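FAQ: What does a multi-protein file look like?

Like this. Sequence, then tokens, then the next protein.
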Amino acid sequence: MVLVVLAVFVSGCGAATASDLKDREESLTGMAADAHLTAERAQSGALPTNLTQGHAEEIAKQADAEAQKLSSTPTDPSLRECADRLADLAEVLRDASQKLADAPDDRDLAESVAGSLEDLIGRIDCEELG
């Protein structure tokens, strides 16, 4: 009996809750909005290429860290689909931001990235979280 209780207790430690995933969802939305603004400003020429590159690289790193965290953190089975979806969207954000960082002076690419990120922002929503 003690072993069963201990096993249940240990398996629950560190598991992502709905509140944790809601925080990750909000974080991703903020990062995507920041990346979108960066791409729009790069496309219009309002942001110098060195700032575009540095900021986009930082967003890509943050998005990669989010994707890894979402993929590796134990999650309640009822929330696993949401966590996986958020991890996939974080990877899309990482890739879009890295494209912008790799070609910070390409206005056509920046326009395309801005459009992709606008679409991404609309998809960051786990209905399971309320």
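And here is the next protein:
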Amino acid sequence: MKEVVLFNHVVFIESFVDGGINTTDSIPQWLDNSNGDKIASTIFKIESINEFKEILNFVERETLNGLKPIIHIEMHGIYEGLVLKDESIFNWRDLFDQLRAINIKCNLNLCIMMGACFSSELLLQLQSLDQPAPFLALFFGVEKVFTPELLQTYEVFYNALFEESDFNQIQRRVLEKCKENNFPNLALITSYGLFAGIWIEFLKRNKAQMKHNFIRRASELKSFAKHKRVFFLLDQYPENAERFDISLSMLRNSKESLWEEGGVIIKKGMKIEFK
């Protein structure tokens, strides 16, 4: 898959109980390069869940006017969700549902940058491939993350936005940075990689059963087609068939796995229901 970069606005959302470190003050300088190219950005410093939801609702409405956003979130994270300045907790499930709604409206062009501890919990809210993808790309942390590591990785990501037209190359540069600097708790994953990785794991687990069972293989092919159609919104956006060019035979022959990206192991926490 070659995914052309289409983002046109970065929405920063920040909320810290103790003030935190203002990482959002450092990032906007990376959105204006020496050639005069610039990505528009807006910073929201909020205190409550209601404010958070209002901003996400606003972003969702603006997608109808052509907004293709990067939503960059800087907050404290715990297993239950994001902790806002007023000490309320926005649970991962509710956040996941709102972000997916935005991703649907902007035709799978939502990139999410999560500068929060335990933000891999957001990814773990995916329970089925019978629903649309929650994002085009997600940057997240497993368990605790640290500001110096985040800032170094953000700089690579935002600089790459000006230098790469293919999101796969942006992802490669971020993951290389994480590997070179030994940031094992940080990763950037795409919806394509997520879909492929889940199916590769399923095929590995069921390889022996499927080998000589043609009825089950036919059923498997039918499930794959349905998952691909729903997850990548092919009925709503037919052009996505070309954007997300993936086949079952391609995955059967794959030697790679989603879970090897960035050295982050989280598959044990995912519970994907296959129908």
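Q: Is there any per-entry metadata?
A: Some entries carry free-text notes. For the entry above: The first strand starts at residue 9 and ends at 15.
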